[in-house]
Inverse folding.
C-alpha cells in the first residue's frame, strides 16, 4: 500500500482530532462517534494492523476508513513532521485497497457505481448539464479569458444551481471575460478520488483535461473548491495545461467594479476545507465581504486553519456515511455560527451550502440564521 512505511510512526498522541489551539474536537468523524478509532491516529494504527495481518478487513474497518471526510484538520495538528503531510493520502490509499477488494459500504458502492455508469452522482444525462444557465445568455467557451466550470453540484443540485447562476452573474458584473461548456462538461473527479477510487478519478480527470486542452483553455475559474483542488493539485500531472482559480479569487481582484450598497448586516463566514486547508486560500472570500460598506464580519471561534468542516467531503455529501444527530459536524457548525450573533452564514462552496442549510433546519435555527452562498449574498447588496 502507498506510504505503508510511514504507518508505524504515529504514536497516538491524540492531537489530530483537535484544532491548532486545542480548544475542542475538530475531526468530524470523531465528533460523530467519539471513539479513537475514528481519529487519524486510530486509523493509522488500524491500517498498520491490517497491513501486518493482525486484523482482517471487514465492514467495521470499512466504516471507520470511509468516514474520513478528508478535511485535513489532522494534517494541521499532527505532531510528526514527515507523516502529517501524507495522512490524508494514506487514508485515501487505504480506501483504495478496500475498493479493489470490494469491501466498501453500500452507500459508497452506489456512489461509485453512479459515477462509473452515469458520469455524475445524480444519475442525470449530460444533456441536462446546461440547464443551470437557462435564461442567462452565457456564451459557450470560444477562447475567452476564462472557462467557468460549475461541476456536478452546479449542474444538478438545486442549491448548487442557484449558486452557479449567481456566480456567473457576479463574474459578468465584475467584468470577467468567460465562457462555459454547458452540456459538454464532465465530472472533475475530486470526490471520487477522496472516496478511494483513484483509477476512476483519473479517468474522469483525463477526459475533462483532454476536452479543455483541445479547446485551448488557458485559465479555469471553478464554482466549487473541490474542483479547484483537484484541478490545481492533480491535473498538471494528468495532462492539464491550464491555470485554475476559485471564483472568489477572481472576483476579489475586481471587487471595486461591483460597487456594493451599504448594509447593516452581520455575517459569519464558513471556510471550506478544500479552499482553506487544502489550497491555503482564506482571504479572498473575506475580502469580498469586507468590501461591502457597513457589513460586519463576525468570525466564529474556529476559523481559517482551525475551521470545523461541514462534513461534506470524502464523498459524504453524496453517501451520508457519517450519519445524522446532534454531533453531526454541520449541526455543531451552525450552532457555532448562531452564537456569534450573525444573521447570515456565508459559504463559498456548493457542498457546504447544502450541508449547512440542512443543518440549520435540523437545529431549528431558521428564524435566527440564514445560510447563503457568498455570490447570492453579494448580488443582493447591489
Amino acid at each position: 500500500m502507498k506510504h505503508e512505511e510511514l504507518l508505524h510512526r504515529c504514536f497516538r498522541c491524540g492531537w489530530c482530532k483537535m484544532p491548532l489551539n486545542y480548544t475542542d474536537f475538530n475531526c468530524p468523524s470523531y465528533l460523530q462517534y467519539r471513539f479513537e478509532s475514528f481519529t487519524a491516529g486510530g486509523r493509522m494504527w488500524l491500517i498498520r494492523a491490517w497491513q501486518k495481518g493482525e486484523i482482517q478487513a471487514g465492514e467495521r474497518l470499512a466504516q471507520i476508513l470511509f468516514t474520513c471526510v478528508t478535511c485535513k484538520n489532522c494534517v494541521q495538528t499532527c505532531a510528526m513532521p514527515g507523516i502529517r503531510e501524507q495522512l490524508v493520502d494514506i487514508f485515501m490509499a487505504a480506501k483504495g485497497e478496500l475498493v479493489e477488494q470490494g469491501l466498501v459500504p453500500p452507500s459508497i458502492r452506489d456512489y461509485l457505481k453512479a459515477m462509473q455508469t452515469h458520469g455524475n452522482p445524480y444519475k442525470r444525462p449530460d444533456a441536462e448539464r446546461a440547464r443551470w444557465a437557462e435564461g442567462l445568455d452565457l456564451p459557450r467557451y470560444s477562447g475567452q479569458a476564462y472557462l467557468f466550470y460549475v461541476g456536478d453540484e452546479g449542474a444538478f443540485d438545486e442549491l448548487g444551481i442557484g449558486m452557479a447562476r449567481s456566480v456567473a452573474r457576479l463574474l459578468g458584473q465584475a467584468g470577467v471575460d468567460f465562457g462555459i461548456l454547458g452540456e459538454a462538461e464532465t465530472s472533475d473527479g475530486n470526490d471520487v478520488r477522496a472516496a478511494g477510487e483513484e483509477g476512476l478519478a483519473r479517468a474522469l480527470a483525463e477526459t475533462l483535461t483532454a476536452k479543455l486542452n483541445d479547446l485551448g483553455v488557458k485559465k479555469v475559474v471553478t464554482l466549487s473548491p473541490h474542483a479547484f483542488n483537484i484541478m490545481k493539485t492533480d491535473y498538471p500531472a494528468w495532462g492539464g495545461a491550464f491555470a485554475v482559480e476559485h471564483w472568489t479569487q477572481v472576483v476579489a481582484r475586481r471587487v471595486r467594479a461591483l460597487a456594493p450598497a451599504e448594509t447593516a448586516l452581520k455575517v459569519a463566514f464558513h471556510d471550506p476545507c478544500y479552499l482553506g486547508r487544502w489550497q491555503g486560500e482564506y482571504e479572498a472570500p473575506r475580502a469580498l465581504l469586507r468590501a461591502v460598506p457597513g457589513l460586519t464580519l463576525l468570525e466564529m471561534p474556529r476559523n481559517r486553519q482551525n475551521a470545523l468542516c461541514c462534513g461534506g467531503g470524502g464523498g459524504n455529501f453524496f453517501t451520508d456515511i457519517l450519519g445524522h444527530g446532534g454531533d453531526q459536524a454541520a449541526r455543531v457548525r451552525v450552532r457555532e455560527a448562531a452564537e456569534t450573533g450573525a444573521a447570515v452564514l456565508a459559504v463559498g462552496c456548493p457542498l457546504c451550502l447544502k450541508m449547512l442549510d440542512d443543518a440549520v433546519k435540523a437545529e431549528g435555527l431558521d428564524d435566527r440564521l440564514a445560510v447563503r452562498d457568498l455570490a447570492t449574498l453579494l448580488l443582493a447588496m447591489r
Remarks:
- The mean pLDDT is 94.
- The longest helix spans residues 198-215.
